[in-house]
Design a protein that fits this description.
Layout (H helix, E strand, L loop, with lengths): L18 H18 L2 H18 L27 H18 L3 H14 L2 E2 L4 E2 L2 E2 L5 E3 L2 E2 H13 L3 H15 L10 E2 L13 H17 L4
Antiparallel strand pairs: 1-2, 3-4, 5-6
Length: 221
């Protein structure tokens, strides 16, 4: 019931046509393909990458939009949205896919996505902001934890160690808490943190970023 005639899958809720749902499905398909060797998962991954390359990413700017109409045309104006964290996350996935398929052009696209994500990097706070407008101006200067983890992952995958170090230093601020093992979730535009419980949704992002840092460093991080 979630299959969509123009490709990909529709999502339940307010935004039925969104890149985020396809991104997580792509990550799952790549993981199952690596684990099982089932060609069906590889075909699904290929389909979702093609949708991203042909519909989600603007060939002029290299930016990947979040929300679309039912023909996978990006929504513009206030309904349009560019999230730096998702530029990084898609970049990481495209690098994985491209290397598995022997498709170096995917890495070229990933580098453009990474550059768009870096448009939302605030060197004063050392963090990637939550959102840009569709013309790549800052839309929301707050900074959640998960975009910082995706910044690190993408930078390492693309061999940009300077950006990875910036990202790791920014991420460390969220982990500097009175209780080891918990984290800050939301940094305000002024650099302070919102006082709130640590949401479990960020644990997945943290785990993968720390795993990639450990692989790069060759020792526990």
């Amino acid at each position: 019931m979630f299959r969509h005639g123009a490709g990909g899958f529709r999502e339940a809720g307010e935004h039925p046509f969104q890149a985020n749902a396809q991104m997580h499905l792509l990550e799952a398909a790549l993981a199952w393909e690596e684990t099982s060797g089932d060609a069906g998962w590889g075909a699904l991954a290929d389909e979702l990458v093609a949708l991203a390359l042909n519909r989600f990413i603007d060939p002029a700017t290299g930016a990947l939009s979040e929300f679309f109409d039912d023909a996978w045309r990006p929504l513009a104006g206030p309904a349009g949205l560019i999230e730096p964290g998702h530029q990084f996350e898609w970049a990481w996935l495209l690098v994985r896919w491209g290397r598995a398929r022997g498709r170096p052009e995917a890495e070229t696209t990933a580098r453009r996505l990474f550059a768009v994500g870096r448009r939302g990097f605030d060197p004063t706070r050392n963090v990637a902001v939550d959102a840009l407008t569709d013309d790549l101006a800052v839309r929301d200067a707050a900074a959640r934890l998960w975009p910082q983890t995706e910044h690190v992952k993408a930078a390492l995958a693309l061999g940009d160690t300077a950006a990875a170090l910036q990202g790791a230093n920014g991420m460390a601020a969220y982990l500097d808490t009175p209780a080891p093992g918990v984290w800050r979730e939301r940094m305000r535009a002024d650099g302070g943190f919102v006082k709130e419980p640590s949401p479990a949704t960020s644990l997945y992002h943290l785990y993968l970023a720390i795993r990639e840092l450990t692989r790069f460093a060759g020792e526990p991080c």
